[in-house]
Design a protein that fits this description.
The protein is mainly alpha-helical. The chain is built from 18 helices and nine strands.
Length: 368
Amino acid sequence: MARLMYVPRFSAVALTVFALLATSSQSAVAARKKHKAPASLVERNAMRGTPFSTSDEAMQWAAEMAQRREVDAGWVQRTLGEAQLLPTVARLMQPAPAGTPKNWRVYRSRFIDPIRINAGVKFWQENAALLERAEREYGVPADIIVGIIGVETIYGQQMGTFRVIDALATLGFNFPPSHPRAAERQAYFRSELEQFLLLQYKAGTDPFKALGSYAGAMGMPQFMPSSWAKWAVDFDGDGRIDLSRSTADVIGSVANYFRSYGWQSGMPTHFAVDFNAATLDKEALLAPDILPTFSVKSFTEKGAVLSGQALEHQGKLALVELQNGAAEPQYVAGTENFYVITRYNWSSYYAMAVIELGREVKEALPAR
């Protein structure tokens, strides 16, 4: 999921958990590890990790959590006590070095490639009826759903190999103190650990079998436990929710997630934008970041140039800047639907990758 930068799924998943905004080799390696750490590495970490049964703080928290949630205290303490503190997880959570340049072209190349496009075509063809149903019931286009699942896990190929309980416990009790937002992030991961334990307890499932990213995101859509509890749906109607093996549940849950954050059916995600040098106030246009703030009128008055369908847009717009390292940045006018995609991962780069992967897959589908 997976930077780490702040992601609304975490405050609301949401930290999707991607360390992918920066373009340094260090962040690229971390991002790849988020999805797929070698099994041997995971096994070594598990063997070398320190069990949380030795942590008085963790055991006290377990007792308090059990009382707060009215679950068996013995089960919570035994379960958390067997979780492992994994130093690798803490290291992967470190932010990219300050001053690391962002590069949309490099970021894009990680997700828009033949492997993901071909896998996406296969996924779409195999699940066409489910995608059409999700679009009909939730209003979210199939290409956006396909784009999300492809960016997150290549359609289930890379769902993570860290035990979720180890990752969440490590970050909940041993979040790297050097992180600029360590206290806030640690509190967030404790809340996710609590939600994970509660889900496992109520379902009667083995909490040690769940695997995911180094940030504790799970399944094909890489939902954090709180996202699973709030937005996951039983789209195949079998009486349970399975985001690892049921493509129906995955498709329905992603669509439900977006609808819950305000997706507007029929609205484009973005428009092309140019600039009028004589009236341009780029600083003012960029000030709200990716939050749609400007009407078409106020947007153009500040020097943004729109054309065609964009001039008829009734909602708010944001100027989205995609930096390209030392080269010139690229810009688009993001709509409220563009902003909804960033609720999955707080990153304009991520949102554009989702949009463009979904579009590339759709265009690669054989003609019907």
